[in-house]
Amino acid sequence: QVQLQESGPGLVKPSQTLSLTCTVSGGSITNNNYFWSWIRQHPGKGLEWIGYIYYTGAAYYNPSLESRGSISVDTSKNQFSLKLWSVTAADTALYYCAREVIVPVDADGFDIWGQGTMVTVSP
Amino acid sequence: EIVMTQSPATLSVSPGERATLSCRASQSVSNDLAWYQQTPGQAPRLLIYGASTRAAGIPVRFSGSGSGTEFTLTISSLQSEDSAIYFCQHYNNQPLIFGGGTTVEIK
Which residue in chain A is spatially nearest to B100 when comparing CA positions? Predict the structure, then answer.
């Protein structure tokens, strides 16, 4: 059974870089049926899709990040990572990694999620 | 960017009764819509994809309908464990957008 696990610092200072890693276990990140996404949830709020990456390294980002984000993949470690630069208090959120089904094309949706990791931006 | 609007914000339903949740897209998303359930302290769980197909292991009391811009999630006979926040999400194009959520409370 595929599982996702986020890891990274829980506290980041304003203007610095937020770095998180998602480790995929129980399956290969190179499976061509999936995209691998980062999603965040501000405290008490809804869900915001940050972006996704394919195992080839092709990535797409939510324009709301204003080009502050980057997602990378390390197939040798079965991991994908998020970097968010120049963070502010508005980036304080619960960050999830999730798997999106892309094949079959009519079975889309985020079917597997990590447990989430809280990141607080504070001096 | 497509805007997803959910209503009502909160729904209070008695056990065994039907709960009907709505999701509206600002433009057509065809049937590229998913529903998720989030209970306190947990990650969201995929309930429905393709607007009406239940994900694996989801009880039959959950059903989805609609296409284009208007979608509905129905819980036919509410159970206590269904108390949660429910989100819709389109995947018709990028960026992928979630609705603001509907909180279902047990009356």
Answer: A46
For residue B33, the one-letter residue type is L
With CA atoms as reference, the chain B residue closest to A108 would be B49
Cβ <8 Å between B46 and A110: yes
Chain A residues touching residue B56 (CB < 8 angstroms) = 111
DSSP string computed for A62-91: -GGGTT-EEEEEETTTTEEEEEE-S--GGG
> Dihedral of CA A62/A66/A68/A70: which sign?
positive
Q: Assess A11–B contact: CB distance below 8 Å, yes or no.
A: no
Chain B hits for A105, CB-CB cut-off 8 Å, are none
Q: Give the angle B68-B73-B77 at the CA atoms, nearest 5°.
A: 155
pLDDT digits (tens, 9 = 90+) for A6-52: 999 999 999 999 999 999 999 999 999 999 999 999 988 899 999 99
pLDDT at A106 over 80: no
- The size of chain B, in residues, is 107
Residues contacting A19, CB < 8 A, separation 6+: A8, A9, A81, A82, A83
Residue of B nearest to A102 (CA): B91
- Rounded CA separation A81/A83 (Å): 7
Residue corresponding to tokens 């008490």: A44
Does residue A42 sit at the B interface (CB-CB below 8 Å)? no
Chain A with chain B: Cβ pairs closer than 8 A: 61
